[in-house]
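As a representative case, the lines below give one protein's residues and fold tokens.
***
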Amino acid sequence: MTDSPARARGNNVFLALLDFFRQFGADFARGDIFVKLSLLVMGAGCFRRGQIIKGLLITLFQAVIIIFTISFALPYLADFSTLGTVTRAMVYNPDTMKNEVNDYDHSFKILLYSVVSLIVLFCALVVWLRNLRSARALEVTARQGKRVPSFIEEVKSYRNERFHITLLSLPCLGVVVFTVVPLIIMIAVAFTNYDQQHMPPGALFTWVGLANFKALFSNSITLSFGYAFFKVLRWTLIWAFAATFTCYIGGILLSIFINNAKTKCKQLWRTLFVISIAVPQFVTLLVVRNFFRNQGIVNTYMSQWGITAFLQKIGLVSESLTFIPFLTNPAWAMVMIILINIWIGVPYLMLIATGILMNIPKELYESARIDGASPFKTFIHVTMPYMLFVTAPYLVTSVVSNINNFNVIFLLTQDVYITTDQKLANANAKEIDLLVTWLYRLTQEYYNYKMASVIGIMVFVVCAVFTLLAFNIVLKRNKEDKFQL
């Protein structure tokens, strides 16, 4: 039995780390006194081999890290286990004879700066370990009678053979600052009681372990996050797949109709649909929301034309209502959201499908026609397999993006939809919320950062599991050399 790709990658990473530390130990044991001394003074190896400028810079870097650790990192890391103990208060100062703010702790600053300090110290540790190996490499070069490269030559190498390091340094720094640090902070907050009752600087929050995760899967009279989570998750998955595949099929069909030989004014039809892309999405959604309000223009015409009364007779609209609850009833709102999203998403897929359809070999269609295949069978057995072959990765990423599609749900239902489910209301959720919109409400409207962080982690887990499974299936089955129509 062969290992899965994920397990193989994990084994490769572990073996690479093991090999690195094995080589580190060997370099330390075999190195001369200056190599060993570089563990204490990082520039010692460079000084011995004549790289004075590099040695000074590395030693200066070591001094900065030591100062950073003593003056900044250690004070925050010392409070990291408690996230602060001194609450903000007004204290009387006998010297000034005034009430002044005390020297209080700020839990979020302690958490943030502790995470930053740990990342900086981890990077410094990596540099420290690699510096010893670099010192050993310089020693080997000198013992072999080769010329040790100067500092200027090493700098120039970052514009030549090591230029990839120069190019990747800034993007990697950006990923760490804008992605890794916020992600770690979000994960850490999920293990605290950071909410409206524990809001710095007026109050402290502290670690609570797995209590928030337990709350997400528990139900009670006042705490119903478990009920809300599974209900919101179910609608999130239904929405993600419905929004993806309705737009996908609709875009392909629209592209086929427009590119059909019998269709007139093809450029006009393409232009009309492309215009819908040019209009900002939030403008379209806000306008459509006003159209479909309970007292909006659509309901006005529906009432005048007798459609509202007809829907009341067949039981789709309550007799107590004088309007169709397009965006205020859970069932109606879910259907309308998917239908409105089709109008927004189909033009994008139309453009993608047009490019792919133009590249399908005409011989395939000719063979299908000779074999007597109907247009429907040609679509099923020729067009769709080819489309799926090309767009399978897009479908996977589209489902994930729809799981996190904030705009459509929020802009269509904000200030319009009010939940009538008390259990959902207790958890600050609504029937039409996605996990991401629920997370937004928890943070921006209710300041429940602890549960928002837990939900954020669950969104990541759902997206990661689906992406890994889907891409594994795509990579196994969607290979060009095995593609057959």
Q: What stands out?
A: The first strand starts at residue 90 and ends at 93. The chain has a mean pLDDT of 87. The chain has 20 helices and two strands.
